[in-house]
Design goal:
It contains nine helices and eleven strands. By secondary structure, the chain is of the alpha/beta class. The protein folds into two domains: about 100 residues, Leucine Dehydrogenase, chain A, domain 1 (Rossmann fold), CATH 3.40.50; about 130 residues, 3-Layer(aba) Sandwich (Rossmann fold).
Length: about 300
């Protein structure tokens, strides 16, 4: 029997319907949420991703503020653009599209983002709040990293309960693997997480123990059917460009071998699984930040920071 599809497109559409109502309610209070983006250079994949983010914003009524710089931009020019977005009252939150051109210290640029306007949830202060917020009912986190949040939301909305389950995360990157482990193991989510990576001995054996598998390494078809516990939920996150089609479009491959569909109980497609959820959760972060500015949580890490008055 083939796995049940974890449909990111349909789930993201449902989330955007809900966000549209929340944005409408904010507008009645005189608040129009706005997403800012900073794109440096003209990488095709990055431009396509930013365009998709602004399209999602338009669908729910969130304003878009776009800044672009050439690939030759210096660190100081990029830093000035970040400060401009920090200071722009129309920008509720914003992202710096990665990767930045070679030679630019990405961590330093991310560190310049006002934590209260960090739409990606990747500022060190917000990641630190996630570490401290083991009990999110008493310590409110800042904006959550979008892909991990999208993964958990996708599972929840398909009725896949991770509480008391074993989750194997393949990949230790800062945008997916590391924050996902923290989010899954928080009180209220209550999964047991094994964070695996390229140096993990007998990776297949670790994955085979898991009730939920998240593959986020960017190695085409790394995860094989024989690695998967029958009935497990498998989420294919990593994407690798493997060539181009005769029409000039990119050929993409996920981290999960197609044969996994014959073993898994649930499977997110790639594309059409976690990708749309990442974009939807980005817009959700913007709306969350706008709502929290009106009624900040007393323990929110950015409740008294610039831009929250």
């Amino acid at each position: 029997m083939s796995a049940i599809k974890l449909d990111g497109n349909a789930t993201a559409a449902a989330i955007k319907d809900e966000l549209r109502e929340r944005v409408s309610a904010l507008r009645t209070k005189g608040v129009t949420p706005g997403l800012g983006t900073l794109l440096v250079g003209d990488d095709g994949a990055s431009r396509s991703y930013v365009t998709g983010k602004h399209r999602d914003c338009a669908e729910v009524g969130v304003a878009s503020i776009s800044l672009e710089l050439p690939a030759s931009a210096s660190f100081d020019e990029i830093a000035d653009a970040v400060r401009e977005l920090n200071d722009n009252p129309q920008v509720t939150a914003f992202i710096v599209q990665l990767p930045l051109p070679p030679g630019i210290d990405e961590n330093a640029i991310i560190g310049l983002i006002d934590p209260a306007k960090d739409a990606d949830g990747l500022h060190p202060e917000n990641l630190g709040a996630l570490v401290l917020g083991v009990n999110p009912t008493t310590v409110a986190p800042g904006p959550l990293p979008c892909t991990p949040a999208g993964i958990i939301e996708l599972l929840n909305r398909h009725g896949v309960d991770v509480a008391r389950k074993h989750v194997a995360v393949i990949g230790r990157g800062i945008t997916v693997g590391r924050p996902l482990g923290l989010m899954l193991s928080r009180k209220g989510t209550d999964a047991t997480v094994t964070l695996t990576h390229s140096r993990t001995p007998d990776l297949a054996a670790e994955v085979r123990r898991a009730d939920v598998v998240v593959a986020a390494v960017g190695v085409p078809h790394l995860v094989k059917a024989e690695w998967i516990k029958p009935g497990a939920a498998v989420l294919d996150v990593g994407v690798t460009r493997t060539g181009t089609t005769s029409q000039g479009r990119a050929k993409l491959a996920g981290d999960v071998d197609p044969s996994v569909a014959d073993v898994a109980g649930w499977l997110s497609p790639n594309p059409g699984g976690v990708g749309p959820m990442t974009r939807a959760m980005l817009v959700a972060n913007v709306v969350d930040i706008a709502e929290r500015k009106l009624a900040p949580h007393p323990s929110a890490p950015y409740a008294t920071l610039k831009g929250t008055s």
